[in-house]
Task: structure prediction
Amino acid sequence: MVDDADPNNREEPLLRTEGIVKTFPGVEALSDVSFSLYPGEVHSVVGENGAGKSTFIKILSGALQPDSGTIYSDAQEFSHLDPHKSQDLGIQVIYQENILVPSMSVAENIFVGHEKTGSFGLINYNRTIQEAKELIDSLGINLDPKTKVEQLGVVDKQFVKVLKAIALESRVIIMDEPVAALPPEDTEKILTLVRDLKRKGISVIYISHKLEDVLGISDRITVLKDGELVNVHDLSEEEVGEDLISREMVGRPVEKFYKREKSEIGDVLFRVEELRRFKSSPTVDLEVREGEILGIAGLANAGRTELVRTIFGAENYEKGKFEYKGKRVKIFSPKDAISTGIGLIPEDRRVSGLASGLSVSENITIADLDKLGNFFLDLDQEKEFVQKHVDQLEIKTPHLEQEVRFLSGGNQQKVVLARWLFANVDLLIFDEPTRGIDVNTKAEIYKIMHGLAKEGKAIIMVSSEMPELISMSDRVLVMKEDSVVAELTGEDITEEEIVSHAV
Amino acid sequence: MRFKSLFKNQTFFLFVVILLLSIAAGLINPRFFTLQNFLSILKQSSVLGILSMSMALLLISGSIDLSIGAMMGLGAVISCTMVMSGFNIVLAILAGFFTPVVGSLVNGVIVSWNKSVPPLIITLGMSFVYSGLSLVVSGGQFLSMRGKFYFLGGGEVGGIPVPVIVLVVIVTAVHVLLKYTKYGRRVVAMGGNEELAFLSGIETRRYEVFNFLISGCLVGLASMVLVSRLGSVVAGVGSGYELRALAAAIIGGVTFEGGRGTVFGTLLGVLLLGVISNGMNILNVSSYYQDVVSGLIIVVAVIVSSIGAWSR
Result:
């Protein structure tokens, strides 16, 4: 390893691994990974899905045991850690999953398991709140310790998880994709938090797909690919760009902007007139043409998801008219929308895009079972149809009966997409089409979207990712406070233009 | 199904357990291994079997009905009361059958109309309503069918008891419904993820009500088999059946979360309970101990099979 070349120049690393190897049946998840973390350092680990990031974290948190290799901490040597040992060493992982008790207050959550007690071993609420407040203030966040966690937003919940880790006197906080589900404004709050942790002398191992964030906060970046260590960059010593990192992650040059050749734009396919969600809300008009990709930009609470869900019939609305291929249509439910020829790929796959316990087949055909018979289903025909779409979209699944929860995020997204190809809709609404998807699959999804537009389908794409909006859209509507505030076309579709209208 | 995954398959595992228990019972008392005894196990399991199909159907759709036992009892009580009051037997049977159908429909309407209270709570409350109504109708009296309507529960066709035939027909029908029809597929998807089902164009409320209606028909049928088998009932005759049906379904691999489980698994769950109770009868285990033992076996079976599910 190179980073210990000049140990006199730096303090001792807080945590160090050498030659970590971990194999699962059939795959080498990690081969010979060495890593070090200094006090107060932000060290990011990047790599594609399957690069071994999660396995590496699990070895540090003691959830997995390496086959070989050594972990050093506090001048001690370990062949492996267990969860207890790992916590004793001051290592805490902040997972995406909710580990908080919704019905308890922020302060109570912070001290779960080591409650602040007073006489007779009873919980001292004043002390609990006082100490929670001190912790919150020390990080300079705005949070009331008495608020119930269920009333908090996603970011604040992340804060509470971190506070909980600090209360346990952690020295190393591992954050696994902390901003994956967050809109850009909230992402900034998390990044500020990471910087504050660093200022407090706490080391952070930061895992993220978002290279821009990673470059903004890291002292060093470790790049993994297929379980192997590709490179360790020290940002104080070298100039590192996103393109270099992504090239190392993928093993070949990657374009940040997908180069999409525009397809021929035809007649108006779908038109929304004077759509008003509530009595008091502004009206929205929009139209989308055959072969067109219409981007919808805006901040997280600008009403973009609500707008597309309303168009899809999933939300009630006050008034509004819809026109499809020049004819007036009524849309009061997703059923109406689907039979009109509209499909929605929702923002959150796990919550509303998939039935994770059902098979690939069942998930693909569910929106148009009429195609498979009037009362009885033709299962052979189903298999044929599904196989066709699985091949076409290159969905990686061992067999068609596989439960979708075992597929990767990208393949799950393709299953949702296949559902609408099977239902043969003409207007596809994508809400955040590539959220939580790795670089390679992202490019595949773009290619599919482009192919659909070329076939003459219309696409509405809600997105918070600028490169995606800019490179994919023929036209962009910018939304703010439930209304469309700007329409951008051609050369005007730039980050500056979009942002200036969105805020 | 691949051979390797066979061992991790809960239904297969259950089959093995039933086989082992049967062998054990048969070794201790050879009388267990007679055709007569097998038919009698099936016959004793028929009412619970039909009721468990209703429970499985609801669980798989992501719902539940804890009042099916009480509704079954109410149906039986109403039939008997009508016979004793001199009504026509056909009328009495129809009334007894349709009571759970209507009750179930009421449950379904309340459950689908009110999305904030879980069906577990609503149907728990309704179970008190239905069992209370049984007391009201029967006046706490011991009721009898006066020897009428024997065929459904006690008759035989070609040596096979009629309730067994009914059970086989119902199991097959529910299996076909869930596996091979559009309706069934939609119900399974609803149980797997209701929001997804809604966004896939399924009118979830309508399907939920309709599913309760089907469930009610099964309960009505179970009620008539029960009253025909017993010939006489008291108000509390159905109590506890809902929990045994729930146990059978869960043992068979159906989950509380919905979207999962099979009809045949549930049937094996029913048979496991049947074999345990029959085996203990044959081995002369005191009936007081029987509940203790069958309870323990249920818990062990569920734990062991859930370990199998984790290890995937």
